[in-house]
Amino acid sequence: MANNFPRLPPSGIKVLIVGAGFAGLSAAIECDRKGHTVTLFEKSDNIEELIRIGDIISFDPNGSKAFERWPGVVDQMEAVARQTTWLDLYHHQGKFVTRQSFAEEKIWGRRINAHRGQLHNIIYRHAVARGIDIRLGQRVQDYFESDSPAEAGVVLATGERITADVVIAAEGVRSRGRKIVLGFDENPKSSGYAVYRAWFPADRIKNNPVIKHIVENGDTHQGFIGPDIHFLASSIKNGTEVNWVFTHIDDGNIEESWQFPGKPEEALKYLDGWCDVVHELVKATPEGRLIDHKLVYRDPLPTFISPKARIALIGDAAHPFLPTSIQGASQSIEDGVALAACLELSGKENIPRALRAYEKLRYERVHKAQAMGPKTRNRWHKADWTQVWKTPEMIHLVREPWLLSFDAEKDAYERFWKVVEEGEKEKGSVKETSKL
Ligand SMILES: Cc1cc2nc3c(=O)[nH]c(=O)nc-3n(C[C@H](O)[C@H](O)[C@H](O)COP(=O)(O)OP(=O)(O)OC[C@H]3O[C@@H](n4cnc5c(N)ncnc54)[C@H](O)[C@@H]3O)c2cc1C
């Protein structure tokens, strides 16, 4: 490897990773840190396209902890991230309600909110600089695993079969890896919600008297709360770019896509009776910059690992999140951190033990974090305004230390042997019961 990034001595473990989203790239970098050898397959052959798509994405301190361990990465991210430590919340008809400060969360780590493509590009470039073998334009068609020989592998669209010690399936919400893990095909379903979202240059609004305040004093962050809808807007890069998103009820009759174009006039229909600020923001959106993003959802999976425990699902492939949890991206990073550490601790001869421990470390935490999505959404969409005006903090985002001040690497190092022991005991009791 032609670079001097700190990494543990070679572990001899060969890892195949499918998908170069945040989950796949983070797992690749973490495996490289631990001395494992990685080959990553990404179906898209155009990384420029991948980093163009999307808009605002949020990493909380529990996700950004990993970035701090990757030399240079977090500073590059800070340079493109929103510089706010608060969220101003308004009633949907325009009256200011409360400012929620995040300043005290600094002790937990950094919050990084920025354009998804720009952050993705920073991580991608870091993975390339580390010398990780990333193969673009390679669609994985199928997965396989066996005990003898002890291996797992992927089949590419070209028909080529590639084997390794372990496979990490990080191919997002439409994961094919789920089939081998679950034993059957399972389709995502509509969450009943969709998101209109946009990102564009601040020039579009800087002379508009109703909304210029959003961009004329550097970065800002505001939310408007109404029945069944919340509308978030922010300015970024010293007020030179602006973005907004709003979640609304939807019949979900078309497939999820990050590129499905939306029309301002359609979006405005949902905002009848809402204040001028949100109307002007939607109207100012340039053609082609408005995305109508249908949110799909899946029921929690019974497991994240394959029957022979050589294939693991991570990120959205294992657990898609609703945006109001603000945790989907951070949890996808935690997964890769924990899995790489489990492989390190378990060693090449004990890959299934590593994967079982990974699942035990992650399963409960991920599902607890997932539950934050509907919790925040209901807090906003079903707000009892008589109470909110008396106690505005009722509509603050729930920010809890168990979730946000968490270090997935430390947790894996501390709890690995404990969860292995628990797993062994459970296996023992299953055998005992089956003998009866
Ligand atoms: C194009 C795009 C834009 C997004 N924009 C936003 C945004 O603006 N804001 C936000 O909050 N979230 C966004 N998300 C979702 C967000 O990135 C994820 O929810 C989160 O980061 C978890 O990422 P992930 O790596 O698990 O999944 P994903 O980000 O979905 O990444 C999965 C990767 O796997 C690749 N892949 C899929 N199938 C195969 C296959 N068979 N073989 C090889 N490769 C495969 C995909 O091309 C993709 O690069 C976006 C996702 C995508 C794919």
Describe the protein in words:
Pfam families: FAD_binding_3. Keywords: FAD, Flavoprotein, Monooxygenase, Oxidoreductase. GO terms for molecular function: FAD binding; monooxygenase activity. Residues 14-368 form the FAD-binding domain. With 436 residues, the protein is α/β, with parallel strands linked by helices. It has 2 domains: 14-83 and 108-188 and 299-380 and 396-435, FAD/NAD(P)-binding domain, CATH 3.50.50.60; 189-297, D-Amino Acid Oxidase, Chain A, domain 2, CATH 3.30.9.30. 35% of the residues lie in helices and 24% in strands. It contains 14 helices and 17 strands. The strands form 4 sheets. It has a 7-stranded mixed beta sheet. Strands 7-2-1-11-17 form a 5-stranded parallel beta sheet. Strand 9 (151-156) and strand 10 form a beta hairpin. The protein starts with 13 loop residues before the first strand and ends with a helix. The structure holds flavin-adenine dinucleotide. Flavin-adenine dinucleotide (FAD) is lined by residues 18-24, 41-44, 50, 53-57, 116, 139-140, 170-172, 176, 258, 315-317, 323, 328-329, 332.
What descriptive keywords fit this protein?
binds flavin-adenine dinucleotide, D-Amino Acid Oxidase, Chain A, domain 2, FAD/NAD(P)-binding domain, 436 residues, globular, 14 helices, 5-stranded parallel β-sheet, alpha/beta, 2 domains
